[in-house]
Structure formats: C-alpha cells, structure tokens
Sequence to fold (409 residues):
Amino acid sequence: MSRTGKLRFRANRLSLLGSSIFAEVAAWKREAAANGLDIIDLGIGSPDQPPTEHVRQALSEAALREDMYAYPATSSGLPFREQAAAWMAHRFGVQVDPAHEIVTLMGSQDGLAHLAMAICDPGDTAFVPDPGYPIYAASLALAGVEPVFLPLREENAYLPDLDAIVEEVWDKAAFILLNYPNNPLSAVADLAFFERLIAKARKHDVLVVHDLAYSEMGFDGVEPPSILQVPGALEQAVEFHSLSKSFNMAGCRIGFLVGNRDAVAALRELKGNIDYGVFDPVQEAGIVALRDAIAAGNGAAKAADVYERRRNLFVEALRKEGWDVEAPKATMFVWAKLPSLRGQDGAVWNSRTISQEMLRQSGVVVIPGEAFGDEGAGYVRIALVEDETRLLEAAARIGRFLRAADVVG
Ligand SMILES: *Cc1c(COP(=O)(O)O)cnc(C)c1O
Fold:
C-alpha cells in the first residue's frame, strides 16, 4: 500500500493502468466548461443512440417479472448463449457449442480486463497493439504479464508485421491480442490476414484473442469478418463480442467471449469468483436484439448506417476546412493525422498540446493519440458521437482553430 502519494489508501498498481491522459482531458473539459465554452464532446467512445424500442420493451417487461431477481449464475444463462451461437452462425457462418465455447460477459470490457488473469501466470508475455484500446495493456499489468507491443503503422495499413517478430518471442508468448475494426485506428482486416495470423499462432502455440466490438460498424458495404471463420480457428482463438456498439446497449453491460473452450472455461471459472452473472432482464434484452438482427437479415438497417452518414458529412467538412483526414472504413472514430502547428511563443505543439488548445479555443473535445500508446503521437481520435448539426459545427470550429494557429512548414 502506498502512503507516500496524494491518497493514503491507493495501491501502486493503479499507476500501471495508464488512464492519466483521459483524466487530463476530463480536467481540460471541466476548465473549458467553467470558462463558459459550449462543449462539443467528440472524446468519448459511447454511442449516442438508444437500442430499438423492441429491445427496450423486452428489458422493461422482464424487469417487471418477479422471477428475474435471483443471482443470474444460478439459472446458468444458457438461453442467451444459445442465441449468441445462433447469431454467430447467421452472421459469420461459424458453428459453436453454446455450453462450452461461449461465456457471457458484463460487456466485453469485463472479459478483456480479466482474460490475462484467467489464462496466464505472472511473468508470461503477451502481444498487444500500439496504439491500442487502453484495457489491453492495463489487463496485462494487473495480471503481471509482460507486454510485447506491436506497432500498428499507417504504411502497413495499421496491421502488425507478423514476420518482423523473431521466432523466440513468438514461442514465449501466451497470446496475441488484436482488434479489427480497430479502435482508435478505425482500420479493418480481411480474412486473408486472419488466416496468416492463425497459421503463425498455431506454429508457435499462441492463443489469438480478437476483439470484435465493431463487427456491425463497417461502412461502404464492408462486413467485418470473424476470426473464427478461419478453418480450425476454434482451436487457436477466442473472440470478444459486444452488444454495446452493435445494438446501442452500452449501458446494459452485456457481451460474450466465444472460441477455444479451455480459455472460455478459464475465464468462466475466474468470473465465478468475481461476479454472479449479467442481470437476467439484460440477458433477455440481449436475446431480443440478436434474434431481431437474425430476423431482419443482412442488408437491414444497422447501427453503422447513422455513423456512415456522419462520417461522410464530417470528413467532407474537415477537408473543406483544409484538414485532409482519412475517411474511416468502419467504427465510429476518425483517426486524424495532425498538421504541424506552433503556438504564439513559436514552440511546435505535440498532439497533447494541440488537443488541449483546440478544446480551450473551440470547445471541441478530441483524444490525443498518445492516450493509446507511443505510436499514437501525431494523431488525434475524433468520435462521431454527436448529431450531424453538431458535427458540422465542430468541423467549422476546428477549421477556425487551425487557421488561427500557425501551421509549420
Ligand atoms: C467499446 C469497446 C469495448 C467495450 O465494450 P463493452 O462491451 O461495452 O465492454 C471493447 N473493445 C473496444 C475496442 C471498444 O471500443
């Protein structure tokens, strides 16, 4: 226990979680709001749309039932897992055993936070991407697992260079964690990449952990694949699914892990000691969301539609303001390379300073790329989580900010 910091009761372990930049952005935001600025928050990655009325109805009806208030684990939760299996078959053509190859989660964050603890021992190593979604590295720190960071760079379409990793490092690793469509990079991967990844992992007996939180958020007709579509992948991989973005159920806290049965069993065993399952009415609502998605068939309205329209409008508006950002192929994020800017004192700003100044001057919140790892320097992540009018307003304000700042070179 650390008694030397500002707080008396605070483990040093918390300092490994790497949440400091997000806390900093929150402080800038409070300061800007206190200064009377109208804030447009494009920092958070939480969908601003509700689930369908049918889903909300299922949740409320279940909540009124008297038999819904026991610990969910005691009723085993098999119906939700069966529906999840049916959805995997419908959406990806992947057949899984709901009793042994799926574990229900309190959102995929729950599973991401605990997986390393369930399948690794302290001193093991695992691959995580840089930039990466913050819980990936944090979960390793909590489990005492050594991270090997895989740089994801623009010149390689934000895919890791699997052949650049030496054989001994492959052999030592317990798992490799990747995420396509990617947060924060909004990059996508195709089945051919997943096939190469599974082949490498099989050769070195490494578990592939794939986070598919944005499976229903592809644009321009892109339908993000599941890594379990690769033949034999059930032996070598697990995949996280979330209803948060796909069905706008972020606040409900429901998702699942599907794939290799040993890893699924290990996570279920650990979670059996931590929580007693997802509230049954939430599982009922999840069943309805997945069942409706199957009934509607492919080509029906998806969560992606609203974000695709926002992307088109926002990217075009920013380009008109003189900032030529890359249009994302998926997710609700624009990963935007910053121009070089300098302040009035002549010093060149880094992405952290640019984000802070942009917020101070324009009221628009974005996340500096470094928040996701060193490789994120020079970029910001902009979330399309406000309506079209507000996004246009944000683009106009960003344009004014860029013109007022001195663009270097
Ligand atoms: C939002 C998000 C999650 C967490 O989703 P929950 O199911 O709500 O916990 C996981 N991974 C990525 C990449 C995300 O963006």
Observations:
- The mean pLDDT is 94.
- The domain at 53-299 is CATH 3.40.640.10 (Aspartate Aminotransferase; domain 2).
